[in-house]
Amino acid sequence: MRVLSIGVMVGVFGAGLLTGSAFGARGDVSNDTQRAGADVSCGATSKAQVRTTPYFGLARPKGSVSELEWQVFLRDDVTSRFPDGLTVWKAQGQWKQADGVTAHERSKVLLLVRPDTPTARVCAAA
């Protein structure tokens, strides 16, 4: 099973923020970053947005990341970088390992939506 510590999660998440990439529960990079509303007319007051969805596995060598540890990470590391808001939900990740066995891990998913600026577009293209 994939094992992550809070320190590794912060580093992985920080790298994802710099590149605009989303990281899978197994540490895989997925290209789930996309511009929402690019081809849809939503009215004169709407603006295009960029959506990034990072995934965090909660297992680590000394046991699972607790809800309190997650909340501290969310408050200190994520919210400080995205003060305008985000959405987080519980998930159950799974993947097939090299030996063919399906592994499972408790996870958290973040949804970050921000204005479609030149900086956000550069990060989304990475």
Task: Summarize the structure in words.
The chain is of the alpha+beta class. It has one domain. The chain contains 3 helices and 7 strands. Strands 3, 4, 5, 6 and 7 form a 5-stranded antiparallel beta sheet that branches. A hairpin with a 5-residue loop joins strand 6 and strand 7 (102-115). The chain starts with 5 loop residues before the first helix and ends with a helix.
Notable features of this structure?
126 residues, alpha+beta, 5-stranded antiparallel sheet, two-stranded antiparallel ribbon, 3 helices, 7 strands, 30% strand, extended
Summarize the structure.
The protein contains three helices and seven strands.
Radius of gyration: 16 Å
SS content category: alpha+beta
The percentage of residues in β strands lies in 25-35%
Percentage of residues in helical conformation: 25-40%
Looking at the structure, what is the overall shape? extended
- How much is the average pLDDT? 73
Q: Characterize the biggest β-sheet.
A: 5 strands, antiparallel
C-alpha termini separation: 28 Å
Chain-wise SSE layout:
Blueprint: H1 6-19, E1 22-23, E2 29-30, E3 34-36, E4 49-52, E5 55-57, H2 67-78, E6 87-96, E7 102-115, H3 118-125
Antiparallel strand pairs: 1-2, 3-4, 4-7, 5-7, 6-7
